[in-house]
Write a structure and sequence with these properties.
Layout (H helix, E strand, L loop, with lengths): L2 H6 L8 H10 L7 H5 L3 H8 L7 H14 L3 H8 L4 H10 L3 H14 L3
Helix pairs in contact: 4-5, 5-6, 6-7
Length: 115
């Protein structure tokens, strides 16, 4: 189970994300890359980790979780709410920094889905 799974199942909240990070950092076991351990795709993690003036990591996590609840990708979710939500519009704009990563993630997810 990942942090994102725990939030979706009601066992954690966004406020618990620092504990997830602490668990990963303090572990003596090889838990892999942090974004995988937390349940984030690389571009989602990159958005969370980047210091922005107008958004913070909790904003990004909230949109990731909302997208997962809707069973859509983060970019699709942001695209659907950005006209009514200025923060979503800013996160969507910033996601462009990782456009190539999003393309690779989208292609990978499409290949893994059953036809």
């Amino acid at each position: 189970m990942t942090f994102i799974d725990d939030v979706l199942e009601g066992r954690a909240t966004i406020d618990d994300f620092d504990s997830c990070n602490d668990t990963w950092q303090d572990s003596e076991d090889d838990l892999g890359e942090f974004h995988d351990f937390a349940g984030l795709l690389w571009p989602e993690y990159a958005l969370w980790a980047t210091d922005h003036e107008r958004i913070d990591g909790d904003d990004v996590l909230a949109y990731v979780i909302a997208a997962r609840r809707r069973d859509v990708g983060l970019l699709d979710h942001l695209r659907s709410v950005k006209e009514q939500d200025a923060t979503a519009a800013e996160v969507y704009r910033l996601a462009g920094w990782w456009a190539k990563d999003w393309e690779a993630v989208s292609q990978h997810c499409t290949e893994d889905r059953p036809a």
